[in-house]
Structure formats: structure tokens, C-alpha cells
Amino acid sequence: MYFRISIPLVGRSQEFVCERLAAFSISGIEEHSDSLSVFFDSFDEGLRAGLELGGGAPEEMADQNWSAAWQAEWVPLLIGERFFLCPAWLADETPEGRIRLEMVPGNVFGGGDHATTQLCLELLERVVVPGCLVADIGAGTGVLTRAARALGARAAGCDIDPASLAFVDFVGSADALAGGRFDGVIANIHLGVLEGLRGEMLRLLRPGGWLLVSGFLPEQAEEVEGLFGAMGELRGRDGWCAGVITDFAPPQSTRAPP
Length: 258
Hints:
Layout: E1 2-8, H1 14-21, E2 28-31, E3 35-40, H2 43-53, E4 59-61, H3 66-72, E5 77-79, E6 83-87, E7 99-103, H4 115-127, E8 133-137, H5 143-150, E9 154-159, E10 170-171, E11 182-188, H6 191-204, E12 205-216, H7 221-228, E13 231-237, E14 240-245
Parallel strand pairs: 6-7, 8-9, 8-11, 9-10, 11-12
Antiparallel strand pairs: 1-3, 1-4, 2-3, 5-6, 12-14, 13-14
Helix pairs in contact: 4-5
């Protein structure tokens, strides 16, 4: 037996709600366009989360084979012109001319099924040139790091989440890569983190480099451009955006003039 609550997003990002859910003992999460279904083994824990995050009282659910049901929902995907995203447990043949990337499920973001990851893959095809140096900040499962390498880049990824240890080159913030200067920086992270990491990410870039950012909502695009500069290319999918910046601007000041 388990218990489910449905948490409406109501203007909040999925990442923001998931961060708040880290304070609770959960069994699983299902993502929807406007809400999250969150599962608990304990009614009391589900009730506590529901009251804090606006999910109401938990609904009792019958047991089922979660692993089989969850894996059945994952299907291979053709992304952009080059990539073939495929769950690791499937033996589907890679289409000719495509680069196979394995979807990595687990407790780390970036398995490959999320719109922000897919938008980043599409844009990586346009900015990566063989031999360039790329830093992936908040790399998660490392799927974007692996994609950049498959396109010919020398790429390194870092993440502050210890659960990413098996997937990234460094566990830590962007400072973990501070010894190098890069032709491109990837940051598939929500806006609040982008704000805090602005200086670190720009210090990693060589003159003339590019920044690929994702994890923000359409209505936040102007704020992202205020942080970094105009996006030469902006793409959106399922309520999420990603863009590439090469013309960097100083950050907007909120102080009143003297």
C-alpha cells in the first residue's frame, strides 16, 4: 500500500517543488505539465508534505509493480538531427547517422526524458565544433557532457549532488572546473541557481565563447537575458526554454542612481 498526493505547480517550477520535497521521505514522483504526483509509503509523511506544498490529503493506492510500469513508459526518442535517446534496458537499433545516448533513470536530474535536456541536445548540435572545450555545470547524469563529447568536444561535467558521483568528472560547484577556460558552458539549471552562478560561469568562458542555458520558463527569458545578454537562439518545449548566448552584457543593476 502507498499514498499519493498531487501538487499543483501554480507558477512554481518543477525543480523548485522537488527541492522542497527533499525534506520528505518519498517513494517516487510523476511529472505532469501543471503538477507533480508524489508517492509515499507513509500516510503521515504524505499528509505533512501535502499541507506544506498545497497537495491536500493523501490518496490511498493499491500496490503494483512500479519498476515494470515505470520502465514501460520510457521509449526511444529522436532528438534534433543527430541524437537517438534510448533507455539503457532496451536493445533498439540506433538509426543510421544518429548518435546513441542512453537515458539514465534514477535520483539525479537529466535522465534525458525532460524537455530542458532535449532542448539542450538540439542546441548543442549547433554550437559544438570538434576539439572545443566544454564545461557542463549541474551535469546530473552527465547526458549533456556525453553528448558534447560525441559531437567531438572535450567536455567535463560537475554537479554539487553527491548522487551524481558515478556520472560526472567532479562533485562540486563551477569552482571545481575553475582551473580551465572553456569555449562553451552548459547550464541546465533553474533560474535561481543561474543567478547565483553567473560570475563563476562567465569566468570559465574564453573570449568569444558561448553559454547554453536552460531550465527557465518563457516568462523568465527576459530575466535570463538581463543576467547574461541577448539569446541568439531561443527554443521552447512543454513550457520550458533553452537558449544560446554569445553577446554578453553586464548584469542589470537594481540600485537607484546617485
